């Protein structure tokens, strides 16, 4: 089964956004601070960047082959 660039970008962006959120939470806990984070903004940033990369890669974009 071939995964589309959009699906792959979503999967990776979701993982990275959650990882970044856990790092922010860990640092806030260490510094005994309360933080507000917009998880969607993390996700959207990574999704857009990854999708652009995948669309330029022949491995993920059959139109480039």
Category from helices, strands and their pairing: mainly alpha
Helix-strand sequence? HH
What's the main sheet like? none
> What level of helicity do the residues show?
55-70%
Distance N terminus to C terminus?
A: 18 Å
The Cα radius of gyration reads: 15 Å
Percent of residues in β-strands: under 5%
The counted number of beta strands is 0
Assign an overall shape: elongated
Mean pLDDT: 88
Which consecutive residue ranges, at least 5 long each, have pLDDT under 50? none
Number of helices, counting only DSSP H or I runs of 4 residues or more: 2
What is this structure, in a nutshell?
By secondary structure, this protein is an all-alpha fold. It has 2 helices and no strands.
Description of the molecule:
66% of the residues lie in helices and 0% in strands. It has helices spanning 5-30, 39-55. Helix 1 (5-30) runs antiparallel to helix 2 (39-55). The longest helix is centred in the first third of the chain and has 26 residues, at 5-30. It is elongated. The chain starts with a helix and ends in a 10-residue tail after the last helix.
């Amino acid at each position: 089964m071939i995964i589309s660039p959009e699906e792959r970008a979503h999967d990776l962006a979701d993982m990275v956004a959650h990882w970044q959120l856990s790092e922010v939470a860990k640092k806030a806990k260490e510094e005994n601070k309360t933080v507000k984070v917009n998880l969607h903004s993390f996700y959207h940033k990574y999704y857009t960047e990854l999708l652009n990369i995948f669309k330029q890669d022949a491995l993920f974009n059959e139109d480039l082959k």
